[in-house]
Amino acid sequence: MTKTAHEGGRLFVASIMLLTSLFVLLSFSVLSPAMSPLTAIADLDADGVPDSTDIFPADPSEWRDSDNDGVGDINDAFPNDPSETIDSDGDGIGDSIDFMDEGNGGVRISLIEFEFEGYTSSCHRDKYSPDPWFEIRVDTDCDGDFDAVFQSEVFYGEDYLECFFGADVDLRDDAESVRFSIIVYDVWDVDNNEITDFEILDYVPLDGLMAEDQTVGLPYCSTWTYCGEGDTDDPDCRLEYMISTVALP
Predict the structure, then answer these.
(1) 87 occurs within a structural domain
(2) What is the pLDDT of residue 40?
(3) Is residue 50 domain-shared with residue 129, that is, in the same domain?
(4) Are residues 108 and 66 in the same domain?
(5) Structural domain of residue 158, as residue ranges?
(6) What's the pTM?
(7) Distance CA 132, CA 114 (A)
(8) Does 69 have pLDDT greater than 50?
(9) Cβ count within 10 A of residue 238
């Protein structure tokens, strides 16, 4: 069937209009991409979210960043907290405030060395060797109260001990500090396995202070050595101990 001149004219006009539309569309895309109609439907990473609303247009695994911290919600352990992005041990506490990122946070307090320095004439009792007994007191939340107490066995007739006692203390993973004190006793009497009489051995060389009360920030690791000689408090001893941050079961 032969097309008429009129039909040919209409096809020519339609072709011109189509080419003009394509030219305008391409011009917008090249000269002003943000205003281009193609921008609204472009999806560079093919994740189903248009580039115009995709915060990560080149990453198919991310498209939103709710807290504007630069990490997409999919890979952000705390998508609504701009101060946290990672939770290495999966305990619900972000690495920024978690003092132990590798597991359940705690501290290990270890008594490394003890040596009895002897009784003096000012002591109300005297004997050749002490029966040392040790107590570790811990204020886990630094509220002023020692809420965890760990006691050793009684070491009968021992002037010297090495690596002899310690305690693992579980803490909140977002704890900022811990307070602890170590008391050294000389046991004088035991009745039915209960200690009924004792005397404190002095390891701090300051008058009126026989035990150290310490608060340390977390994480922390340090060792201390004290000797009670040089003040008016008796009887005296030397004590070395340490505290270290650990991951507990």
Answers:
(1) no
(2) 53
(3) no
(4) no
(5) 104-248
(6) 0.72
(7) 9
(8) yes
(9) 18
